[in-house]
Amino acid sequence: MKYDFDEAVDRAGTDSLTIDGWREYMFGAHEGPAPEVPANGFINLWVADMAFSTPEPVLEAIRSRLDKKILGYTRIYDRDYYEIFGAWCERNYGYRFQEESIVFSPGIIPALNRLVPLLTHEEDSILILTPSYAPFKKAGDYSGRRVVDCPLRNNEGHWAVDFEAMEQALSDDQQRIKAFFLCNPHNPTGRVWRRDELQKMIALCLKHDVWVISDEIHCDLSRSGVTHIPAASIFPENHKIITCMSTSKTFNLAGNLLANIMIPDASVRAEWLRLHDDFISPLSLVANKAAWSECDEWLTQVRHYIDENFRFLQDYLGTYHPLARFIIPEGTYLAWIDISRLVDVSNQEEVTLFFARHAGVLLEGGQMFVSNGDGHIRLNLACPRAMLAEGLNRISKALSASSGDAT
């Protein structure tokens, strides 16, 4: 079956965060008024939420479940769910998680918020690599934990772990780092960590008795031919590596609210289950099963389409803004672009607000990623190519007007 990723799906009136929630999410803390919606509407390239239709096999599974007429209390009693997930992991990563390690969460962000107080005390710290997915810091803040930044090294757009800085932070007894949030693949830079990089990061944490919480939500969205390596597979016998996976990014199911959290430590898992019940939505259950068992071809096609979007962006920047620093990332559908040589963003309004007001494009500026992201913007490329092209044209005009360029 050939899927149509050029389709413009109308999301108006669906209470979508992307379409309806941008004011509060992006500008709620801004002192002035939120930007006005332009006459021709915003181009939405911000939150990591695909603009593509959810795969038809998933939608059909939900319709079929609705035909059962009752949406009562639901838990996973049929072991088929675990077999489907295990087979998916084995096909795609060559690794299976132990069935007994799996617990459930209404998403990975809630899981991070739950895990921090389970694994740390108030005087402890959380380590993150920056730039960072902002909810990592918020998960620490939420429980009153210090969050320690370890900046990634940026070599002309190629981002790498500063292992010396990481070990120095972990060795600092005053910091009391007890958990490390690993973003695997990394958001926002798009790095798919190599086996040797994962081995070094995790070994450092284990050496210092630090929990590793690996957010692998983008694990299926690497470039075609790039393989994801689950962090837990590096040290399969160690129980201090917790893995978070979900169908939400891969199959555009962010509203499905069912993530698998693999907690191999029996005592931590028991405490999780004591505090958090495992009732789930019956619709979420069938959606996950259909996604992992019937959508391999859809994923192959969507990855190819996103690959082409990245090449389109690279060609566009090379033609119109060659001073922009951009490397096609190994993973995610998020483009991390250094625009610092195009416009002095320090003299502009906050970057996100600038592009909303002057380009009619909603995107996320580097300041939204904790630290070490100044001068960058992040674009969501999981969208129809016509939408991407229009967004880039608008961004280009705003940049050119700001710099006084006549391009």
Automatic annotation (TrEMBL):
The EC number(s) this enzyme carries: 4.4.1.13
Obligatory cofactor(s): pyridoxal 5'-phosphate
InterPro entries in the cross-refs: Aminotransferase_I/II_large (IPR004839), C-S_lyase_PatB-like (IPR027619), Class-II_PLP-Dep_Aminotrans (IPR051798), PyrdxlP-dep_Trfase (IPR015424), PyrdxlP-dep_Trfase_major (IPR015421), PyrdxlP-dep_Trfase_small (IPR015422)
CDD domains, per database record: AAT_like (cd00609)
Positions of the Aminotransferase class I/classII large domain: 42-395
Gene3D superfamilies xrefs: Aspartate Aminotransferase, domain 1, Type I PLP-dependent aspartate aminotransferase-like (Major domain)
Keywords attached to this entry: Lyase, Pyridoxal phosphate
A GO molecular-function descriptor: pyridoxal phosphate binding
PANTHER family hit by this protein: PROTEIN MALY
NCBIfam families assigned to the protein according to its UniProt record, in alphabetical order: C_S_lyase_PatB
Protein name: cysteine-S-conjugate beta-lyase
Naturally occurring in which organism (per UniProt): Rahnella aquatilis (strain ATCC 33071 / DSM 4594 / JCM 1683 / NBRC 105701 / NCIMB 13365 / CIP 78.65)
